[in-house]
Amino acid sequence: MADTASALFPPLVPGLSVFADDYDLILCDVWGVVHNGITAFPAAADALTRAREGGRTVLLVSNAPRPNPFIVKMLDRLGVPRSAYDDVVTSGDVTRALIAARPGVKVFHLGPERDIGTFDGLDMVKASMEDADITVCTGLLDDEVETPDDYRDLLGRMKARALPFICANPDLVVERGEKLVYCAGAIAQAYEEIGGAAVYCGKPHRPIYEAALARATELRGAPVAKERVLGIGDALRTDIAGANDAGFDSLFIASGIHAGELNAVDGAVPDEASLSALFDGHAHPRGVMPRLAW
Q1: Secondary structure letter of residue 104 according to DSSP
Q2: Among 31, 28, 79, which residue's Cα sits nearest to residue 57?
Q3: From CA 68, how far away is CA 174, in angstroms rounded?
Q4: In the record, what terms sit under GO molecular function (predicted)?
Q5: Which of 36, 50, 104, 203 is the most buried (most CB within 10 A)?
Q6: Other CB atoms within 10 A of residue 202 CB
Q7: pTM
């Protein structure tokens, strides 16, 4: 019976140290693993620092719509030590590369003013939706109160123009303190539901993993074999599915966006029945932890 049950859900592991020696590269999610948008998790930073001290390269891979420097500053502000990572790769970085490939492109920015730095230094023209060549969505204008339903009319007008839609953050929701807020991925999903075409720049899609592997090769001086890569994250749809599709092992952190479903709020150990239900029909990670620790 124990063997049958264990096949229904991934095993709980006490710490990253259990299988850290099996990997040369760790691709670790940020929101929900290293911090929750308000508070950093010291045990997670300690685990990643120890991994690096053991010779592994640690890249923080985030669906943040803003490029690397903005995220590094946020991590500094939250007190995440730089010893915990070698570099940061974001969906904002991938977004910038797509825009840079089209010099002079007219861009309608759908998102909050705080994300405007995503476009710094690019050869592009900011335009209205009616005049734009593409839409770049970095999020909701006010994610504290809005939902994707607030954008139905705008999306309908975009669809009428067959306007290409670049999603700079494929997350549907993200943890902010003790609440979940909608992200650009939820708007992109709504656009696709009415027949619009969306391009996703972050996890679980390949471009961000290709960018991360390229950066790891630069840092290590040689490519890393896929079987020596571990993805860590708290989102089944993006982190675990993305790592699996890319050919990597993964470690699932239960206290992030799925905490309510798993009865794992505030780092509680998830129960077996909830784990089995969550992973039914989905790729399994190598292990599960309530919160990342060594």
Answers
A1: T
A2: 28
A3: 18
A4: phosphatase activity
A5: 203
A6: 31
A7: 0.90
Cis-peptide, bond into residue 170, ω within 30° of zero: no
Rounded to whole angstroms, the Cα distance separating 90 from 30 reads 10
Q: Which residues contact 73 (CB under 8 A, 6 or more apart)?
A: none
How far apart are alpha carbons 14 and 268 in whole angstroms?
13
Q: For residue 249, report the phi and psi dihedrals to the nearest 5 degrees.
A: -75, 165
Between CA 80 and CA 73 the distance in angstroms is 10
Read off the pLDDT of residues 175-193 as tens digits, 9 standing for 90 and up.
787 788 999 999 999 999 9
Q: What is the pLDDT of residue 4?
A: 35
Handedness of CA 224, 226, 228, 230 (dihedral sign): positive
Q: Are 83 and 112 in contact (CB under 8 A)?
A: no
Sequence-distant contacts of 153-159: CB under 8 A, at least 24 apart: 154/110, 154/129, 155/187, 155/190, 155/191, 155/194, 155/196, 156/194, 157/129, 158/129, 158/191, 158/196, 159/191, 159/194, 159/195, 159/196
Residue pLDDT, tens place only, 210-237: 999 999 999 999 999 999 999 999 999 9
Q: Structural domains in the chain?
A: 2-92+204-289 (3.40.50.1000), 93-200 (3.40.50.1000)
- Cα–Cα distance for residue pair 122/101, rounded to 1 Å: 10
Amino acid (1-letter code) at residue 62: S
